[in-house]
């Protein structure tokens, strides 16, 4: 429905733009006054600010219907709106008094007709505005919307051309003179109670909500705002926070794995260095024992664990000295087969100093 009104509105404004272009004082032909096909927008030779007078010239309009009429610059002087009890016709030449029942009126201009004495009772105050103050203009005749259930009524079907995207379709608007809450059935021509939500229907007018869905049941009013249940908000909230926490936890796990890999690498490096150092120590010991076992050695050959002052190492193993870290010269180094004992000794000595 909304799309429909929008497309109708757009085609209306297009018609306005391409409507009569004659300005004030130029010639026009009254016979050219007409309702445009499809939109039923009033059209004349004259432009938006003028109407075609009986003298055949365009004259400034004498009244307006809209608060902000189309075709006027912002600061322009506007023709007046009509006072209560009068109306401004489609031509907008001058205000006229309301028309009594059975007088000729213009298409869809319920406001041109005099209201019934009980207009407060009959007026449709809903947003659909199926009558104006209880009066309707059907088939160009003023009447009152006062027919009750089961009585014969009049109906007026108008086929508008509507557009959905690029495709045209016909939108039939059916109006009647039944009281509010009833509709005039086009076949039997009697007033029938409008249907509630979910009941079967053939046309919008049959529904209280004025919206007959394509599956043939009355749907909620087409301009009703869309409401979402609490669960939708809950799901969205859970989704947002769940996503956040999932990201955090994933990052934490990834970083933990990277940290573990780094630690493993360092441990590996430490083991390599340790093994390297030990092989150097072994080389040193082998070198020393081979030197000591030479004939003319100083007789220390039968010690199983080699303890030596760092100072004496310098003289006995000068070629290894560079690869081992600089010794203070005070440290006692004890070498054994046990893997960790060298380091224990180092730690202990470092603590003592
Ligand atoms: C307007 O109408 C008059 C007589 O009807 C004619 O002489 C004149 O040429 C017309 N002017 C224009 C602009 O059509
Ligand atoms: C309906 O009638 C009352 C009283 O006559 C008037 O004040 C009011 O403007 C009318 N409403 C419309 C929409 O014409
Ligand atoms: C209903 O309206 C018509 C005019 O449309 C009028 O002639 C008739 O008297 C009204 N009936 C009632 C009961 O008011």
TrEMBL record:
Signal peptide from the UniProt entry: 1-19
Comp. bias intervals (Polar residues): 300-318
Name of this protein: Uncharacterized protein
Classification of source organism: Eukaryota, Fungi, Dikarya, Basidiomycota, Agaricomycotina
Keyword Membrane applies: yes
Region annotation Disordered: where it falls in the sequence: 292-318
Keyword Transmembrane applies: yes
TM regions (residue ranges): 230-254
Highest taxon of source: Eukaryota
Organism of provenance: Suillus placidus
Annotated keywords: Membrane, Signal, Transmembrane, Transmembrane helix
């Amino acid at each position: 429905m909304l799309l429909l009104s929008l497309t109708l509105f757009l085609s209306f404004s297009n018609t306005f733009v391409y409507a009569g272009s004659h300005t004030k004082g130029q010639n026009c032909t009254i016979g050219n006054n007409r309702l445009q096909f499809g939109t039923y927008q009033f059209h004349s030779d004259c432009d938006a600010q003028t109407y075609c007078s009986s003298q055949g010239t365009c004259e400034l309009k004498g009244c307006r219907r809209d608060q902000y009429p189309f075709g006027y610059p912002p600061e322009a002087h506007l023709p007046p709106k009509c006072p209560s009890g009068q109306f401004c016709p489609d031509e907008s030449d001058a205000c006229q008094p309301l028309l009594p029942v059975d007088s000729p009126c213009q298409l869809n201009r319920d406001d041109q007709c005099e209201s019934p004495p009980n207009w407060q009772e009959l007026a449709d105050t809903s947003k659909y505005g199926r009558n104006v103050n209880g009066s309707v203009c059907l088939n160009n005749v003023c009447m009152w919307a006062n027919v009750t259930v089961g009585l014969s009524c009049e109906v007026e079907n108008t086929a508008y051309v509507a557009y959905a995207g690029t495709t045209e379709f016909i939108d039939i608007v059916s109006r009647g003179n039944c009281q509010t809450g009833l509709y005039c059935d086009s076949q039997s021509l009697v007033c029938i109670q409008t249907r509630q939500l979910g009941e079967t229907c053939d046309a919008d007018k049959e529904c209280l909500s004025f919206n007959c869905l394509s599956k043939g049941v009355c749907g909620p009013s087409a301009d009703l705002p869309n409401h979402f249940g609490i669960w939708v908000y809950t799901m969205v909230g859970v989704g947002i926070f769940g996503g956040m926490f999932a990201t955090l936890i994933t990052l934490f796990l990834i970083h933990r794995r990277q940290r573990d890999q780094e630690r493993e690498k360092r441990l590996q490096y430490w083991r390599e260095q340790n093994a390297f150092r030990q092989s150097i120590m072994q080389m040193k010991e082998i070198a020393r024992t081979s030197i000591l076992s030479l004939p003319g050695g100083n007789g220390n050959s039968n010690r199983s664990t080699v303890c030596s002052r760092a100072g004496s190492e310098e003289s006995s193993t000068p070629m290894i000295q560079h690869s081992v870290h600089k010794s203070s010269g005070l440290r006692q180094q004890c070498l054994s087969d046990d893997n960790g004992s060298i380091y224990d000794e180092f730690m202990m000595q470092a603590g003592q100093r």
